[in-house]
Design brief:
Alpha-Beta Plaits; alpha+beta; 3 helices; about 40% strand
């Protein structure tokens, strides 16, 4: 099974995070969605930040290693790492993703 992982990060680290996950074969593909605005409360203060969203495609087998590595590399104290299980993936794409993360 494949997982799609959402992770917001600062614009200056998005490419580095994506490349590292690919180079270490922890993800098959990472899409970088630029220029989103996130609003949240951090340490009792309302924040509004420009961020990039990473859409990370990985396998169940590699997910935990990818999550640990992403948490280690990420500059935030509490990085947003949200994994979505997939219930319908094109078979040829799933095979490719498994090959890329093996």
């Amino acid at each position: 099974m494949l997982r799609v992982v959402l992770c917001n990060c600062s614009p200056n680290e998005s490419k580095e995070l994506a490349r590292t996950l690919i180079e270490e074969r922890l993800a098959a593909c990472v899409n970088i969605l630029p220029s989103i605005t996130s609003c949240y409360v951090w340490q009792n203060e309302l924040c509004e930040e420009e961020e990039h969203t990473l859409l990370i495609k990985t396998t169940d087998k590699r997910y935990h290693a990818m999550k640990e590595r992403l948490e280690e590399l990420h500059s935030y104290d509490v990085p947003e790492i949200i994994a979505l299980n997939t219930d319908d993936v094109l078979d040829s794409y799933a095979r490719w993703a498994h090959e890329q993360t093996s």
